[in-house]
């Protein structure tokens, strides 16, 4: 009986992760196709009404969204978290009277750690940081897709656009935790088992935003993220790498060729540990100079490197592992 229960538990965990992978890869396209198909059926009135409503609701994603705690607390997300498992490690308190920008590293292929820790309650964010509202900032274009936009907002996600981030940091009160995957699509192309590479030396916009609105900066590193999939890496200068780069510039995300276990879609069962570092106090400067931005950007990079080296051995890496910052 115990063996059967264990097999059933493993099956449920795999199903929860599989639906997440397929949602990540296909749900946006499927929603667009579904709406287009219904327009040519006897149900044409439904998509018509939805599109009219969507146009009136167009700016909601950039005005704090429409999070639904019930969605963030789905039992399915607990099975998702237990599959790897995902662990959230807190190193310092965050004050509900302040706003914060969390820089999440590395991107990996699908940001499994960031999703579990900041877009669901499966990893215990609300218990670890009481009074704080986490919002994972993702590709803004996804919020222009019918139906999919509502699903994303219900999990507390927001567009990684200037109007959206400014709203959360200035007109949504205190206690906001805006999570930005700094490396973005460029970092996903460097995702591979054994690699600890982050892309951020020339990415300073999040620091300027923090200064303009007096939001403290917090480095976050997710150990195990790059071990979830095996990616086919193309060398710099190759035709295929050039195509990936061109696609990334045009669409905002990179087409990665990867494989996992069990039909190639499921990520490997590798423990994921998301470590939230200590806040870096940032003053409010309406028009920060380049020197000021560079100063706090350097402080952030130093804090990220220190966070990595402090926790790498407890998270399964050896002392010889180094963090490469590009």
Automatic annotation (TrEMBL):
<protein>
    <recommendedName>
        <fullName>Acyltransferase</fullName>
        <ecNumber>2.3.1.-</ecNumber>
    </recommendedName>
</protein>
<keyword id="KW-0472">Membrane</keyword>
<keyword id="KW-1133">Transmembrane helix</keyword>
<keyword id="KW-0443">Lipid metabolism</keyword>
<comment type="similarity">
    <text>Belongs to the diacylglycerol acyltransferase family.</text>
</comment>
<keyword id="KW-0812">Transmembrane</keyword>
<keyword id="KW-0256">Endoplasmic reticulum</keyword>
<keyword id="KW-0808">Transferase</keyword>
<dbReference type="GO" id="GO:0019432">
    <property type="term" value="P:triglyceride biosynthetic process"/>
</dbReference>
<keyword id="KW-0444">Lipid biosynthesis</keyword>
<dbReference type="GO" id="GO:0004144">
    <property type="term" value="F:diacylglycerol O-acyltransferase activity"/>
</dbReference>
<feature type="transmembrane region" description="Helical">
    <location>
        <begin position="20"/>
        <end position="53"/>
    </location>
</feature>
<dbReference type="Pfam" id="PF03982">
    <property type="entry name" value="DAGAT"/>
</dbReference>
<dbReference type="InterPro" id="IPR007130">
    <property type="entry name" value="DAGAT"/>
</dbReference>
<dbReference type="GO" id="GO:0005789">
    <property type="term" value="C:endoplasmic reticulum membrane"/>
</dbReference>
<keyword id="KW-0012">Acyltransferase</keyword>
